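INTERNAL AUDIT FORM
Audit reference: QA-55
Scope: verify that the stored structure record matches its stored sequence.
Auditor: D.O.
Record contents follow.
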Amino acid sequence: MESTISKRGPLVVEYNGRLFIEHCYIITEKNIENMLEKIKDIPYTRVEQTTETSFELKI
């Protein structure tokens, strides 16, 4: 997700049909940290980038 720093937001992560969104104008390291906190309890094995600022968690 670090590749999105300095890009226009929002930062979006999808898992099993559920969206996690970090609303921001420009994505910062703090936004990445906030997102990682939101998804910390999800048992994913990899993260796939689907657009410039969105990702999908895979089991």
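Auditor finding: record pair retrieved intact. The chain is about 15% helix and 35% strand.
Action required: none
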